[in-house]
Amino acid sequence: MPGLLPIRRAMWKMGGMDAFRLITLRLRVLFALAALLGAGTAAAQTAIVIGGALRMDNDAVWQRIVDEAGGPGQARFAVLATAAANPELSARLIIDVLKRHGAQAEHIPVAPRLEGIDLQRNLNDPALIGKIRASNAVFFSGGAQGFIVDTLQPGGRRTEMLDAIWDVYRRGGVVAGTSAGAAIMSRVMFRDALNVMEVMRGTLREGHEIDRGLGFVGDELFVDQHFLKRGRIGRMLPLMLAKGYRFGLGVEENSAAVVRGDRIDVIGGRGALLVDLRDARSDPALGMFNLRGARLSYLDNGDRHDLRSGVTRPAARKIAAGAPVPIRASARGQSMPSRGPVDTFQPDILGDNRIVQAMSELLQSPATEVRAMAARIRPDATEPRDRTGFVFRLYRGADTQGWIDVDGNAHDVTLLDVRLDIRPVRLPDPNATAPASTVPGAMLVAPAGLR
């Protein structure tokens, strides 16, 4: 072997101990190179984060899941419906659609709500663990993500079955999950935080609202699901600040993000929102959640983003004659009709898709900023009457840009690097008697500092 020749020559010129040291040094170099090659192989690991409510007829997403696992005839899935309320039904539906797209798939019956099994026996069954290791992909169903981590990682300790799943992933396999199965992809996850406003107001307890995830997407990326539909931007940002995350990815329903190393491909329905907090700041003196300088990017079906370089490649349908079509231009290159002043105040930024609508409004108009409110105006009887709200200010940066479908589909957009500031405000008591001259709804813009 050529690589050994220098060692042989050197051994003639030095004593045995020196020769041994040289061989040891060379072996260390070889091991270091092997480690580097192993790190390169890790980039082939693929996590598929599905935003929940994935339709069985969403062929684009299902086929991509199968293709990432080797394609028809090669993809072999272990399906875990651990989170599901009806594990047997959930597993059967997932297996049927995977098989329809050319994959092999088998149910791994490990779920707290699965009747007629001994959960601990199945969890430690060598035959079931072997079936996972023989797979090249694992699929987690939706349901309650707490069931997944409590079963596979009780008290933060990995079970042998979870080790088997990691073995599949590390050798270049696929781990896919929808809804609860997507929530577990980060090292930290939301466990039970349905009330977004309470998270913004500071309720973020370990073991309650948040918990350990399984960490398939790495240490720097936080993921959430059902994101735009349920206004979960409001809970993602406080968690990212609290846990030191640089990037957040909120995947919408009936959509998916394929995460391979630093690359993110968005597919399906309504896309995903990417949050970048590398340049963001927070002022602890305010005493409540606040944020300045966050960057938001909306990635649609077919868009690709690289976290390391920060470069986004819009989908091909947004490219005309080799160049992106700016969002403020029509397919003919003419300016879109002006909507007039749009420096407006929107009352519910946490509503269905409202954050993306506000971003699009900003880029498709002459407005320099758009402001909106996050607030619970009529608190439930069981909740404290906390009258803290939050003002969202979306504005342009020097690199803010966007693209639109060349066919003029106003809903098919890519929006990059919109800036976001958030600060707390005190709202009037909705039960207080208002002066007769008060215009209904004006209380939202009345508090000092809102403007």
Provide the gyration radius in Å: 26 Å
What is the typical, i.e. mean, pLDDT? Answer: 84
Q: What structural class do helix, strand and pairing data support? A: alpha/beta
Secondary structure: helix percent: 25-40%
What is the name of the CATH class of the domain at 44-318?
Alpha Beta
Number of helices: 12
- From the spread of the alpha carbons, the general shape counts as globular
CATH superfamily of the domain at 44-318: Class I glutamine amidotransferase (GATase) domain
Q: Can you name the CATH architecture of the domain at 44-318?
A: 3-Layer(aba) Sandwich
Spans where pLDDT lies below 50 across 5 or more residues: 1-43, 329-339, 434-451
User: How much of the polypeptide forms β-strand, as a percent range?
Assistant: 15-25%
Distance between the termini: 74 Å
Question: Would you count the extended β strands for me?
Answer: 22
Give a short summary of the structure.
With 451 residues, this protein is α/β, with parallel strands linked by helices. It is 27% helix and 24% strand.
Question: Can you tell me about this structure?
Answer:
Helices cover 27% and strands 24% of the residues. It has twelve helices and 22 strands. The strands form four sheets. Strands 3-2-4-5-1-10-11-14-15 form a nine-stranded mixed β-sheet, sandwiched between helices. Strands 8, 9, 12, 13, 18, 19, 20, 21 and 22 form a nine-stranded mixed β-sheet that branches. Helix 6 runs parallel beside helix 8. Belongs to the peptidase S51 family. Keywords: Hydrolase, Protease, Serine protease. One of its GO terms (molecular function) is serine-type peptidase activity.
